[in-house]
Design a protein that fits this description.
Six copies of one chain form a homohexamer. By secondary structure, chain A is of the alpha+beta class. The first copy, chain A, contains eleven helices and seven strands. The model of chain A has no long low-confidence stretch (mean pLDDT 92).
Chain lengths: 324, 324, 324, 324, 324, 324
């Protein structure tokens, strides 16, 4: 096993580098003096760094494709105010030679413990019918494996291996937390829990994520709102004596979880269970999305750069009275 | 078989009436003098007329429920500028005693001939896979019966028995007509034809229409965009060797047929086939919807009353040069 | 003290009534036979009933104005399908003669215990500055009294005495419940708690609610978003050494709590604390609003009537597996 | 006549070029070493290629202006992943020396045969009044010449010489195709045909297109919706006995052809004829626009780049069952 | 000449009435006892009053149609809280027998003096070309007569004879007032003045207003934005040597005067002159519209009823410091 | 005092420069040959010029920060079609050594004379209460100084020292001009004048403008709509006997001045005074904004580049009849 070497987030200007990365993008260009050079985007689980190859660019880089694992030797320098890696040597490694998990962005949470949390939530469903359907989906056809890997997004939040799992687990925690506050309203908690577990299940097909996270044609043309609902509907049709009324309500929770037609739900939430799931889903995405933008903003900035997704600047300061 | 008697559209002020209707609504009220009276909405395939029962209102009307078939005797009068039927006698009939088809609003087109048109279109699909799926859906589980009855809407257009059939047949005719104009673009015609046949198939569960057309809980909470796609997806999963690529494209045509997210399509049309089906679907709905409003506007009015659905008044005059 | 008699929700067709109500509206009309009669809307804490006065309508009703407390004698009857009270005698009572609390719609929760919950939350604020400001606002100028009376809305939810208190307490419970789920993000919980306590404080001036809930000119022209923020800003300016940075963040939480400009927030939430408060505020309003519509829908209806506020029908069924 | 040489779409990396182009843009710049160089955008009817002039850039390029025809000698190279033409020699030619039609983007359809199609459609109008007006417009003042040259857009679709003609002809074909499907509705086909012929007639003034397609000040400040309608209205005012009712309906078809106020129609379609023309116009623009984006997407991409115009990615695969 | 008698705004409950009105609407109905009665809407220049005819309703009312002038004898009474006129006798009069100007709603301003103001503004245009076109339009084909009669709207503001004139004159006053404030910006004042005079000129065909103000089919299907521009464009085409550049700018001012596409301008204002005219037009409409709603609100109300047009309640109080 | 030297707008290609500027931005970069160089944005009151430092870039530029005043020696050259200043020497100067007013963008109007205009308007307020509040705000706590410096925007219009003052003065002139046109409507002019003076007063805290104009965190998180209203509300609370009714109306004018919720007004204008102020505020911003874009467009262009702010191109030609 070849040692990973330094992680992207630990690289500093001026130092020598010998490390393992994955290639996310690569381009061979011609400099103004007619000599070819290459740009490679080098990735590990902590982020990306741009590599520039001046020496034997064509020979070294032409054979590489995105997703390839490479060993790189070079020096860190600064260009136009940004760090880059001037690559002296770059060569393809075999997947078996490296610790792949050091190269792919992954949830900072502990995956096995999140998985066990999910298992507990499934076990806690009191409705036999709902539990049967949930178990059929999670445990019957290999989906359990995919579920712990899929991201929940490509963009700002949960955009890493285990993102879907993490997002699901947090919504379940939020359901557990909020439900007692509104217990007297008589909501069907099982429906909300099942909705939390299943609403994004289609995301395992919406993204490809073996190496780089990309939206699949399935994701773009069909989308996880339909996919999740269809997967559940199929499982229901294979479950004996599943009440039609319950099917209606569960599918509605799934179809409505984007909250509004213009966000891709063909029906807006018309039950409290659907509304509650939608809002806790949204809350998790917004809190993690905001946090992710704030964390990516340099410390000396009061505001993030303008976020197209949220249509606003975000303020990055947390007031800590004791500090002041 | 009891004779139908006069149809709603043939009733005039001042004349006596003895006819068969279906009850759409009914209310028992108390007049200011303390005496009970009743209002019944009487329907046949040509429309509705309000009936007022002054005599023995409670005894006569209490046993009746919407959907009941009744024989009515009374006189036509005008109240507040509208025709109404002053009912002297109203009594429940058995379904077997009357010609039910005279009571329920039905497409003016010939259903068997439309059905045969549909059959021809299915037969004309060149793709073996698509044809197999379409045939499985239409012919394998009794859906063929429902398909010739379902309405395509509750509101302005195709809001009658056979409406879905009629709407489907007209879109197919339009596909046949338009396709040659754009043949050189290389669209997959089979996809458009299959989309036309299947996009609204979920409407057979979106409405109840045995007697009165109502949206079902299934229609309100789930809706035909999902239902149609799910039905097709299930049929595909039961069809051997159906290409995944074709599945993707067909489901996309179905999901996108409302054209925009805010109209209930979770994905907008991203292929020309999906766009073409969406636009021909919309064209049929708009032409029939406009026609239906224009036909319902009294001859002496230049404009319809304001249409909330279309956000405009419609102009009712067709210019006929020869007439002038 | 005159006995309340039957409550509105306990009245049935055909029975005699002798009870105390508050007048919400009243109109004297002339019947077609030229005789005057009167309609009075009679209210108690459980709801409204329409009263019709045929006898000596002018003499009995002319002296009454909305807000007056009256003793009423009459009989329950049904007109156009709705219950109404045919009033024989109606006469003004003095406020002291009746239990006013039986007449005004009031939160079903226990007000003293909610107040003590609020007190605990204030006590639990760890930031000395924030606690000082919150205490100044609640305890320094009689606002504590108003706070336990004000409604939180005139429309669907929390539209009764104690509504603001109840809404505030539930958001605080939700903050307490959700905060631990996201503790690792490092949000300033005190800010969220202070925001929950103060964001709607301006509603004590936005509505008049001594007898009937109405929006005041202050509410219509200025609104509680500004009022709450201004009240807090003033309290801050009277608090020594309140950090300017904290002022900024607290005011932002308050200004942003409607979530979007088009809902009346002059700034959208740009911090996670502001976003969290907004979403928990919205969640409470939506869950209670949905519940209130669902509860008001007759048991036999699957769907509520169309809600203009939410732009949808609501589904009223809660699935209870054991029942089925 | 100087030979055109290679067309833009036939150029490959590494080969020498000697060919004729039109200049669309040109800029003289200074390299970091202080030496001037120039960028010229070279166009022919198949597309654009960027030329870089390093030698005697100022002397060679300064005299040239956009629209000039030039002979170019140089070599094809790749820079930053894109083809460019390293120009050795570039010199102005006279228009007479070259085949101008090889330089300007032009409809792939046969213009004379489209023109004859238009003529047939005019001849086929049954209404004498409408035909008189259409003929007056097309044949009385030289418009016939402009009509075969004008583009129908500057952007994605029909953005070439003959584009207006092609767009018009296709809508007419679509009208002919669809009309029989809805004949029973009693639409006035002449109105739709006249609308198809005339709705975009103002585009001959909306763009300049002698060499490069640009929107004119007339197009930007006034626009073809008004211009078309005004041209027709003027022709009507010069036509004896043109019925006022028909004028109203024809002008309405023209004003409404963008379908909605926010797309520049001062009135939305209120007649079926206006709605039909709008939808067939839209259908042609969308099918050609989609096709044009799909054709411009590299074969190996499943999706086009994001289209701002359509607010979506387009999927580029056509499923061909036989191929698979 | 028959005396007008009391005006609508001077009628009080309980008094006898003998007066002349115009009929705006009329309906013959049947009472619950089977006897016919009639409702007539009686109008004079101060407003409308509902008349009820119990005696010989059919004989008296059947011959009357909207627009007829009638003499009425009866008594004022109150029904359901509203004043109405119980008609004893109603009979058609000839137009010549009455002072028509007392019956039709008319601007409170002095028409001849407003017309002379308009004349002065025309005389004050410095551009010979613009003045020529304006004079041709106003003075060459009888439009001068229509211009002093046309309303500027059917709804809230300027909805009376002379409304267009009044609206035009006030905008001109506002142009004169504002122009000096921004003189240094170098706007072309003549363009703004010509725009003010001409932008609504098409309204003379958008409404019918000989007796009752109605939108014409021309107004609904074509609208005054096009009509005004076309009228001006035609006048330009008959004016020798009118500069094309000036035509462009003037037509743009006219087309853009609604300010946004969604309000019916096919182009938004792209020049300062167009923007200025749009905003002064809007200001006049809003100030008069607000005033008209405020004046129509009963004195004891702080707020108007909800205005659909403006999407808000209006506050009716003007603060007068001296009064208080 | 060091001489300013040439202003940015007077610099031409090829000439030597020795002048004083302020630094707006600066970056140290590394060229492809590994040598560091620097980019500095040099500003004076007439505009910005990019400076490139090749010699001893790190030594010369590292010590400088934005806002620093510098003396610069170098030569003007053109790169990629744009002027830039090749800097030989750049060194920090002390503020005292230069005329700061030559470096900061400032209103072209005369500040003292605008201030005196403001003073006159304050003096002209007839309402004692309003005048007291306005005077308290302007004269009691140093705000008078800030008021003459603050900009009214960062973007297109009034984005310079004195911008707020200029904007305020012009609105007041417009109020004075327009008020007489609508005097008969009985608006409270004092309210409009006070609103004009105070509506943007919060902008003195919304921007920082000692050297460069930036939006402050206060501006981004809180905004001037709230700030202005709160400042006025506080002043009112310190004014004895200020009528509550007047407070309500004044605060409403301030809160409503953005005209619509989606533009940041928590309440839309519900009084004519609020509407009038909003529209004159908007008119001033639009006329100055349009002018500023038109002035910045090169003379040879008919249209500005696309303005994101206004969502359109602007036409730059003013038609001057005499010229032609």
């Amino acid at each position: 096993m070849i040692s990973k070497g330094k992680y992207v987030t630990d690289l500093h200007e001026g130092e020598g580098v010998k490390a393992v990365f994955m290639i996310s993008e690569r381009k061979i260009l011609v400099a103004r003096n007619g000599k070819p050079y290459a740009k490679v985007l080098l990735t590990d689980k902590t982020g990306d760094i741009l590599g520039i190859v001046w020496e034997e660019a064509r020979q070294q880089v032409a054979p590489l494709v995105p997703g390839d694992v490479v060993g790189v030797k070079g020096n860190m320098e600064s260009f136009e105010g940004r760090l880059q890696l001037r690559v002296e040597k770059i060569m393809k490694l075999k997947d078996e030679e490296v610790d792949m998990s050091s190269l792919v962005r992954t949830t900072p949470s502990d995956i096995p413990s999140l998985m066990s949390e999910i298992r507990d939530h499934i076990a806690g469903i009191r409705s036999a019918c709902l539990k049967a359907v949930v178990e059929k989906i999670f445990f019957d056809n290999g989906l359990w494996e995919l579920f712990q890997k899929a991201p929940a997004a490509k963009g700002i939040h949960h955009n890493y291996i285990g993102g879907l799992l993490e997002h699901t687990a947090y919504i379940l925690r939020a359901v557990d937390a909020i439900y007692p506050v509104y217990r007297h309203l008589g909501l069907n908690k099982d429906l909300v829990v099942a909705g939390a577990l299943l609403h994004d299940i289609g995301k395992i097909y919406e993204y490809s994520y073996s190496r780089v996270i990309e939206m699949t044609p399935m994701g773009r043309l069909i989308g996880h709102v339909y996919l999740s609902t269809h997967i559940v509907d199929q499982a229901i049709s294979k479950t004996e004596n599943f009440p039609e009324e319950l099917r209606l309500q569960l599918l509605h929770v799934l179809l409505g979880h984007h909250g509004q037609l213009e966000y891709g739900s063909p029906k807006p939430p018309m039950t409290r269970e659907a509304m509650l799931l939608h809002m806790l889903d949204d809350l998790d995405a917004k809190l993690i999305g905001f946090s992710s933008i704030i964390n990516a903003t340099p410390d000396e900035e009061d505001f993030s750069s303008y976020s197209e997704v949220y249509g606003r600047f975000l303020y990055t300061r947390v007031f800590d009275e004791e500090e002041k």
